[in-house]
Structures are given as C-alpha cells and as structure tokens.
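step 4 of 6: structure.
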Amino acid sequence: MTSQAQADSGGLFSWLDRSHTVAKPGFSRWLVPPAALCVHLCIGQVYAFSVFNLPMTRLIGITESAPDDWKLTQLGWIFSIAIVFLGLAAAFTGTWLDRVGPRKAMFTAALCFGGGFLVSAFGVHTHQLWIVYLGYGVIGGCGLGLGYISPVKTLITWFPDRPGMATGMAIMGFGGGAMIASPLSVLLMDYFSSPTDVGVTGTFITMGLIYMVFMMVGATIVRVPPEGWAPEGYVAPTESKKLVTTAHVHVDEALKTPQFYLLWGVLCLNVTAGIGVLGQASAMSQEMFPGKITVAAAAGFVGLLSLFNMAGRFFWASTSDFIGRRNTYMIFFALGMALYAAVPWTGETGSIILFVAFYCVIMTMYGGGFATIPAYLRDVFGVRYVGAIHGRLLTAWSTAGVLGPVLVNYIREYQINHGVPKADAYSVTMYIMAGLLLVGFLLNWLMRPVDKKHHMTEAELKASMER
Amino acid sequence: MMSEPTHHEDVSGANKIKLVLAWSFVGIPLLWGVLNTLAKASLLFK
C-alpha cells in the first residue's frame, strides 16, 4: 500500500481525500482562487485581533478594568503565540499537506481556526487566560499556518502560466481579511454587549462558526488538476532559463542549498522593515504632524495602509510574472531604501500627502514580498515540493514578527531616553530600516540557480508521485 | 509532470453560474471591508 493510499481516510471523510479532489473535465481553474480566498480572507482576521484587546481588559469591570481583569500586556501574548504557531504549523505540516492534498488541509485548518475561536470563547466565559492562549494562540495559530500554505501549490499547478498572479490573489485575501474582521468584530460586540457583558464571548462563538463554514466552502470548491493537465495554449518550458528551473528539488534537499537561506533572509528583512514601520504608523503620523493628523485620522491612515498592503500583494505578484521574481525583489529593496530614507524628509517639509504616498508605496512592497515568494520558490526549486518549502520558509515571517517591532521600539525608546525629540526619533529608525533593505538587496543579488546535484532524478520524482 | 498537456477547460453556462457564485461569495465581504476602510481613511484628508 502506498503512503498516498494510507493518507486516504475512507468512509465518511473520503470526500476530503486527494483522489476525490481531482477536477473532472470542464472544471474551470478560475474556481480555485475563490476557494483559496475563502481560507485566506478568514485567517487574515489575525491582523485585526487587537480590536478585542481593550474589551477583554473589561470582562469583569465591564465599563472599566477591575483589579482582577486581564492586562493589555497579558493579552498581547495571544497574537504573538498565534504567529509563532503559524510559523511552526506551516513549517511542520508542509510535507503532510503535499501528501494529502489541499482539501483535507483546508478542512483541518477550518476546524483549527474556527475551533480556536470556540475554545477561546470558553476561556473568556470562564475568565481563564490560559484557555484563550491555547484556543486562539495554539489551536487557532495551527489553523493559520495550515490555512496559509494549503492552497499555494494547488494554485501554482493550476496557473503554470501565471503563478505569481494566482498566489497573489490568494495571499491578497490574507491582507484583506482584517478589513472585514475589524468592522465585523465591532458590530458583533455591539450586538452581544449588555450591562453585564462586553460581548466578547458571543462574538468569538459567532465568528468561530462563520469562519469554520466559510473555510469549509473553500475546501469543498477546491480541486487539483488531473495529471498532465495544462491550460490551453500553454507549453511547459523544457529547458531551465536563468532562475526558472524545470527540475524539482526535494524539501529536505532544499534546506541544504544556499538559495533557501538567501530567500529566507530576503523574506525576513523585507517583512522586518515592513512590520516595524507598520506597527508604529499611527503614532508616527501623529507625532510627525502634530495638530494636523488627529487620532481618528491616524486610524484612517492605518486602514489605508491595510488597503495598499492588500493591493500590493496582487499587483506585485502579478507583475513578477512579467519582470521576474528577482527583479521584483530588487525593486522592493531599491525603491524601499529610497522611500524609507525619504520619510523623515516628508516630516520636515510638512507634506502629509507625500508622507502618506511614500508609506502607501512601502506597504504595497511589504505585501508584495509575501505574495511573490511562493512563485519565487517555484522558480528556484520547482513545483513538486513548493508547498512544503514555502511552509519552512515562513519561519522567516515568525522571526520578523518578533524582530521588527522589537528593533523599532527599542531604537525609538533609546533615542527618546537620550533627549531626542519624539518627532525626530523616527528618523534613525527609518535609516536603519533602509539599511536592512540594503542587506536584503545584496542577498537577493546573490541568488543563482540551484546546483544540479540537488535536483531530483527521474526515478526519485516518479517515486515521489506514487507516494 | 505536465509532459502531455490536456485541455478540457470550458466556460459553459453552468460553469459561469458557479464562477459568479464563487467570486461573489468572497468578493462581497471583501468589497464591504474595503468600503469600510475607505470611509475611515477619508478622515485623513478632511
């Protein structure tokens, strides 16, 4: 019995098996991006989790925090745990996902992410923080990681002619998820709140069920192409060209190549710089333009950045299909360096329009970095194990998620403690971020095709297909 | 893996309905989110 057969569940859950997800003749590949979006629009909620922080500091006191209420610092860990488990789940489930196919993975992600909300609702109801850490942080975080990587390989296989655009569409959903989740959470908390309840429990239960159903719709729609399928008019290249290979590299072998670590660094540095400035965008806009940008306007500014972050994911990933992945990242790093370094100058000139415009372009490249990396991996390592390799590479995201905010906050605090005015404290931060991008530029410049000794042989490839 | 390309995609009436339904299912919530965000962002330029 092959491990593929062993991976098939049979019985009630047989519809989840890879063998049941092979598309029948007439299936349109354009149904796959919405299936992927069903998952990514849901898990993108993680970026809006902070909307629950303040209400969760008033679960006992209701109108204001009581002594036994949770502190903001304790609640901040929920998001951090979720992001760490996102990285871990993506890294450790990639190979399993390759074997069982996208439907089972998306179904599992739905159970984890929706279930995480339900477990957290119980934690909030009983006022036990460790249950919330376990629910949203650990279980939900696993759902995040699994959900994030589950449609990637399927999309690349369906769109060999436009892999950047295809994965860009899905990963765009991750950027857009917070834009739905934030107002939805506020609406639901308003609905469920009463003089004795801030409404978080009811909101968690409702959102958990909505997300579970929504993600399962995606799992139902998704299909994998039959063996040998190719879009009309597409002729698969028979020879590798520059950084686009026709060979395949096994996930374990990929970890032995310098290319994996170069791309790890490229992603990590692009994300570190982006996360760092994104986290302080609101405070920075108000302190650089005192009296001109209000608290409400700053909130609008952050919303605008989310929009450009989302749009950049689709725009840059699609553009990379025409100009190449390496060139796309060259633009991210070169243009990024110039813009990061120029942001303090916009403060000096007092131009809000330029400040907002520079920041918005920076955010498109932050999002674009996430969305273009799967196609870059496919170009460098081939299609066969791209899902698993992508999963391993996402540990760079987890690292950047810690590194970016710590770096920015530490540098800013150090300067303020040494007498630098608040409005000027951002200048050094931005120059350091520009320096990080310079390192990223060099790493990307060093990218070369993977040595042929790492390529899978025909026999290895055939054996991997049978597994 | 794609040695012998086969082409069987068609956009029949049934497929068109499925496509409209699937894209609406994800597009409508996304549009709602985008409009909400734009409404908030407009405060920046007032």
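step 5 of 6: annotate
 - Chain A touches chain B through 48 residues (CB under 8 Å).
 - Chain A has a mean pLDDT of 90.
step 6 of 6: archive
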